[in-house]
Amino acid sequence: MTSTITSQDTLPYGEFLTEDHHAIREMVRDFATREIAPKSAEVDRDARFPEETFAALGKLDLLGLLVPTEYGGAGADYRSYAIAVEEIGRACGSTGLSYAAHCSLGINPIKLFGTEEQKQKWLPKLASGEHLGCWALTEPGTGSDAAAQKTTAKKDGDFWVLNGTKQFITNGTHADVAIIMAMTEPELGRKGISSFVVEKGTEGFYVSKVEKKMGMRGSPTTSLTMDNCRIPAGNIIGQPGEGYKQALTTLEGGRISIGALALGIAQAAFDAALAYAKQREAFGQQIGKFQFIQGYLADMATQISAARLLIYHAAWMKDHGQRVTLEGSQAKLFASEIASRVCNLGIQIHGGYGYVEDFPAERFLRDAKLCEIGEGTSEIQRLLIARQLGL
Predict the structure, then answer these.
(1) 232 lies in the same domain as 266
(2) Average pLDDT over residues 294-300
(3) Residue 1 domain-assigned?
(4) Does the annotation count 26 as an active-site position?
(5) Structure pTM?
(6) Domain CATH for 16
(7) N or C: the chain end with fewer CB closer than 10 Å?
């Protein structure tokens, strides 16, 4: 991957992006090209979480991009964040996923719903990279049915006692701060769900499984278990019963970031396929001269541009205080599905070389698939979009 910026990602996109946004893209891309991309294959092959990369991201104020300046963050907007996810994901899908999970899921619930004391305690460390964050909603047997929580939290004097297991938790092995969703009043259903901050090292809180995955292998995915895990009463975020509403708001923003991650992976696949089409020769000419290949690349470039517009539009709306339930779901759905299509065509253009690990094409496809599943499957996105249409 080179740091050359192609014409389709420097367009002004109307009023969506400013010169400051383009400057952020240049800065993140320069870092990602130098420090992230060269080890992306190794990170995937060895399923290694790149701790050194996240330490560097903290020093660049990128881990705290969305954190207000009074808590040690950069105080940037959501468009800046979407650009950062896109560029990091373009260099390495695994790193992009862990970055997005930290910023969107590990930080936003505290930033948006936490008390002043909670913000002062955790946000500066999350912003600097001293702490890594994760968010635990999904459970074994529940999947997309987020309201069907089995994990419980019961009040015991000045403590809450948590019991249960969470599954498919990004960053679980390395997170210093986990936000746990649990039932405080099971008889109330989704209105009985609350959210809590649980710190690494708390007695009765541990990683119970590390998943072996098809893609995004350098981003750890785990199960987290709470076995009579006692946390201070002040670790509840907001009031009891507000957890489900908090989760919906968190996911609304998180979908934009997963869309941006898919976009970055798709752009990387396109870049690789275009470069290969220009240098690979068959039947006496570059394969990029054949109309089939030209058609594939034209479709890929068009779909990527359309996804980028959807994502930037949703991020612009969020920056202007508007609800993005519809737009965020549309952006996530379209970007994640075109990422898989683009990556699949990238393999086709590479031919046999696309199927072997000597080239990154196969990794792009493995990584892209997660974006159709994480933070709401494509099926869930379609349901959310249909509801916003009044169906």
Answers:
(1) no
(2) 98
(3) no
(4) no
(5) 0.94
(6) 1.10.540.10
(7) C
Quick one: 26 and 102 in the same domain?
Answer: yes
Range of the domain at 192: 134-243
Tens of pLDDT along 183-225?
999 999 999 999 999 999 999 999 999 999 999 999 999 999 9
Residue 14 within any structural domain of the chain: yes
Number of neighbours of residue 273 by Cβ within 10 angstroms: 26
Overall number of domains in the chain = 3
Domain boundary residue, one of 221, 243, 265: 243
**From the candidates 35, 252, 372, 375, which is the catalytic residue?**
375
